[in-house]
What does this fold into?
Amino acid sequence: MILTEVPVVTAALEAAVRAPSPHNTQPWLFELAPGVIDVVLDESRVLKVCDPEGREARLSCGAALLNLELAIAAAGQSCDVELLPARDRPELLARVEIGPRHRTTAAERRLAAAIGARYSNRRPFAATPVPAGARYAVRQAAREEGAKLVLLDEVGLSGAVAGLIRRADHLQTLDEAFQAELRAWTKERDSRDGVPAYAGGPRPSGGLLPVRHHGESDEAREFERDPVVAVLTSPTDGPLAQVRAGRAMQRALLTATSLGLSASFYSQPMEIPSARTVLRSLLSESDHPQVVFRLGYGFPGTTTPRRPAASVTRFVR
Ligand SMILES: Cc1cc2nc3c(=O)[nH]c(=O)nc-3n(C[C@H](O)[C@H](O)[C@H](O)COP(=O)(O)O)c2cc1C
It folds into this structure.
């Protein structure tokens, strides 16, 4: 039997590629050896303008890693994970060794089931408030992975951060190189990567937050007046912290999905170094902001395509 035919490996890889990534670049490769799946950063897919350090790409690989671990657990196997296992190969982000049988927990089953249901919902959300229990669960999910999720309305920072997002968005709108890169990753309906126009959101008429333009129509819609915006922070920065933060981001997003919540990202202030510094000081923390997203009750949308797992997998031994 070849390795991708081992059902647990197939399930793990199919789950991994469902992770979110900036502009749907899918910056990952998986290297297979008997009982081992390596998660490798595909440097050719790191966005040169938007993400020159590869930080968002590492977050995405961290999210793919969590999907992989959850799918293995849901298939009834255990696994051991080592982050950045090889000093001389920094693009090798994680090594997952599949272990003995494991009794799947209810939480693992629930989160694994959310992997295929999660998608970025850039449309207006209902005015229904996000209840305290759901807020706690999403915050707790990030904490479980060593990160912190700050819900801005709880700390009185919604207006200030929305202003920062709008200013950063304006700078990106004026940046020709940024716009050219965004256009290059805005794709037709049948493309296996990039963001299809149908996944974009309408232009907000008023409202606090701008929506990144993915070639959707110019229709304008009213967005919720008081969006719930979350900032995920990590205690340190650098490649290891970013892979961990990606895992925390994904656990928070999957927890939100499992509770019927939708999310969409606002990375504008994360992609302009001076804006990221301002965000960090607004939070008045030593922690490092890694990702910003909005949470709420969305109207049903659709998932976006991915390259098939087989096309991002290679056999090494
Ligand atoms: C680190 C990161 C940053 C992102 N930033 C943005 C953003 O600023 N605006 C946006 O509309 N989508 C953003 N996205 C969402 C991606 O475009 C989306 O994940 C990708 O197109 C795949 O679609 P899906 O999330 O619906 O599966 C981001 C995703 C990641 C992982």
